[in-house]
Structures are given as structure tokens and as C-alpha cells.
Amino acid sequence: MFPLHREREQPIFSARAHVFQIDPATKRNWLPASKHAVTVSFFYDASRSVYRIISVGGTKAIINSTITPNMTFTKTSQKFGQWADSRANTVYGLGFSTEQQLQQFAEQFKEVKEAARLAREKSQERFELANPALNIAAPEELSEGRHSPPLLTVNGPGEEKLFRSKSAEVELTAEKERVKKMLSEGSMCEMNLEAELFTLQDSNAKLVAALQEANSSVEQWKKQLAEYQEETDRLRDQVAELEAQLGHPAAGQTGREELSQSLEELEALLSAKDQEIHNLQSKKTDVGELEKEREEAMQRLQDVERRNTELEDQVQNAEKTLASSREEQEQSEVEVRRIIQVLDVKICDLNDLRQSLAKLIDK
Questions:
Q1: Do the Cβ atoms of 88 and 115 come closer than 8 Å?
Q2: Contact 56/44 with Cβ under 8 angstroms?
Q3: pLDDT exceeds 50 at position 157
């Protein structure tokens, strides 16, 4: 039967929202009617002059609510609204992704509610014109939530219809209706507060998760910075050891100066990074700013890693230079020893020649 109604009805407004229904057992808690956001639409049935709110999940109608003039759509938070459907004996709640979508839905509900009121008045006028015998003088229109005095009709064979007022029952019924209305308003306020609490708890859980993630990221950054500091100290000690082994500051002096300057810049960058971490911990109430600063910190950490890589390359180049100097020094020492050996041989030859000359002179 539902698809047949859909064929003759026309959608006039649609929005996507998470659908909830009040718990029929407790009348206090919200039960999700959809696992994800679904389309919620206003439909108009021209043949019956009826407005309805319909939402379908798969093949099941999640919402099928006929709008009446006494319905009210209440915004309980920035993104949540609800209305009560007495015919369906439930309360529907809608959670939107933005405040603007909630405002648009509330305005459309108000317009459709007014259109439903006008349609009902026109329908009553047509009914009265079509049945002039029933158009009797009625008492002044009562306010919403109250009813006109009931009339008792007695029909007998060949007798005219007799009407009489039951004033005592009217007063008792009116008093009951006022009590029901007061209880209904109190229950609605209680449900609104519960929906607001549900929204605040959800937002609070998201904020706590974001802060915990930020805290874990800060601790990870601190560990990485400590590792970079240790690596820097190790590289500095290694450079100092290389300089001591070289013994001649003139050799590779320019490279060492650049290396020392790079180390100083790296230390300054690490100090600035440590200060930024302290500032980040003091300002971690704003999750958006934390995320932005985290991205900047990651970029700077990448720069530090790149500088460390360059520093390691410079250290490797210095080690290669030291090794080359040592090889050249060893080759020089070998050459000097060879020359000394040649000189020793020549000196021995000269001594032999001198002794031979001395013997010749003696003869």
C-alpha cells in the first residue's frame, strides 16, 4: 500500500539526516532507526490534501508521519531536532550534519504545517457547505488541546434527533486534557534535555579522542627529537675525533667550518622545536590549531632528517679525506725510507772508495 501512496504523492523538499525514535518502553531514550544518514522528504498528496514526512531505508519505511496543524518541530541543539506524532504514538528525532540543514528543515516544517492548517480549514468549509443541516450555531472555538462539548444523539424510529449537552462530563474531560497537556509538555522538555545531553556527550567524546591523539603525537615527537639530539651529539664527537686525527687544520678547513656551522644550525633548530612542543602542550585546547601545528612540526622534522642526512654525507666525505691523507702520508714515509736506504748504500760505496784511495796513497 505504501508504494501506491508514493505514486500519487509529489516530493516538495528533501534532506539527509540520521533518524531516531523515542524508546517506546521508557519514553526517555533515543533509539537509532538508521545506521547511517538517509533521505527525509516532505510529500504532498493532492488527492487528499495531506502532507507527510517520509523516509525509506531499503524496503522499510523508517518515517511515515502525517503532518497536522498541532504538530511542532523543536530544535534541541545546533544539529538536532524532533517532533511528536500522536497518530504513530512516537517521537521522531533527526540529526543533521550542519546547522544550516537543520534550519532549512525547520523552516520547511513550519511552512508545511501552515499549509496543512489551511487545507484543513478549506476541507471543513467544503463539508459545511455540502451539509447545511449540520451547520448549526457552535460555541466559541476552544483553544488547542480542548474539545467542544460532546452531544448525545438519540435516534428512534420515526423520531427527530435530540441533542443535549453533558456539561459535567465536559468539565471533567477538559480538566483531564489540561493535565495530559502539562504532562506531555514536561515529558517533551525532558526528552529535549536528554537529546541535548546525547549530542554533548558525542561531541565531548570526539574532543577527548582528538586530545588523546594529539598527546600521543606530542610524545612521539619528543622521542624523535631526543633521538635526533643523540645523533647530533654523536656526529659532533665524530667530527671532533676526525679533526684531532688529521692534525693539520689547513686540510679540509672549509669543509669542517661548514660542518660546524651546520651543527650549530641543527642545535638551534632542535631548541626551537623543543620550545614549540612546550607551546603546543600549553595550547592543546584547540584541536584545529593542534592539527595545523602538527603538520608544520612534521614538515620541520622532515627538514631535520634531511639536514641530518646531509651532515652524515659531510662526515663520510671527511672520513674519506682523512683516509686519503693517511694513504698519502704512508706513501711519503715509504718513499723517504727508500731514499734513505739508497743514501746508505752510496755512503758505503764512498767509504769503500775512500779506503781504496788511502791504500793507493800509502803504496
A1: no
A2: no
A3: no
| Residues facing residue 63 across a β-bridge | 55
Residue 224, Cβ density class (10 Å: 0-12 exposed, 13-18 middle, ≥19 buried): middle
What cell was used for 200? Answer: 554533548
pTM: 0.38
Q: Are 122 and 139 in contact (CB under 8 A)?
A: no
The torsion angles phi and psi of 151, rounded to 5 degrees, stand at -110, 135
| Alpha carbons 310 and 328: distance in angstroms, whole number | 27
Angle between helices 287-362 and 167-246 (to 10 degrees): 10
As a whole number, the mean pLDDT across the chain is: 77
